[in-house]
């Protein structure tokens, strides 16, 4: 009895179904999702950059505020990714997933406002400005 000879030779080969088109569609969906996530992350970094420049390179008396980098950048990148994937789901009419990404975006906005992540660094002259 030679059972191990034919294992795995007919995986995914149903009689009468064409799996080539399905796998290509899944690959294109994956590429589109990756491209949307990358574009969202890039947009989040570009929106974050003007706020971070003053905090990292010209804070009060030349001190750098690294909290701008450690807290603000992840929130902006994740927000950009969530917004881009939410728009992609809206375009594809996947309403429940788009609602989930919208909820994630709202949670990130609440997190950013609560912990003062989205405000940028404090002004160099303190609260008197």
Describe the structure.
By secondary structure, the protein is mainly alpha-helical. The protein has helices at 19-57, 67-91, 95-114. Helix 1 packs antiparallel against helix 2 (67-91) and helix 2 packs antiparallel against helix 3 (95-114). The protein is elongated and about 65 Å long.
Order of helices and strands: HHH
Q: How many H/I helical runs?
A: 3
The helix content, as a percent range, equals 55-70%
Total E-strand runs: 0
**Category from helices, strands and their pairing:** mainly alpha
Primary descriptors:
129 residues; mainly alpha; 3 helices; 65% helix; 0% strand; elongated
Map the helices and strands.
Blueprint: H1 19-57, H2 67-91, H3 95-114
Quick structural overview:
By secondary structure, the protein is mainly α. Helices cover 65% and strands 0% of the residues.
């Amino acid at each position: 009895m030679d059972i191990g000879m034919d294992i795995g030779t007919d995986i995914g080969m149903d009689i009468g179904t064409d799996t080539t088109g399905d796998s290509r569609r899944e690959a294109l969906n994956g590429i589109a999702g990756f491209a949307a996530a990358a574009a969202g992350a890039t947009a989040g970094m570009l929106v974050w950059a003007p706020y971070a420049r003053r905090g990292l390179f010209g804070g009060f008396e030349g001190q750098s505020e690294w909290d701008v980098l450690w807290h603000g950048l992840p929130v902006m990148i994740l927000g950009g990714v969530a917004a881009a994937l939410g728009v992609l789901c809206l375009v594809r009419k996947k309403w429940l997933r788009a609602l989930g990404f919208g909820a994630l975006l709202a949670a990130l906005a609440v997190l950013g406002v609560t912990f003062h992540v989205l405000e940028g660094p404090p002004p160099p002259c303190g609260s008197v400005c």
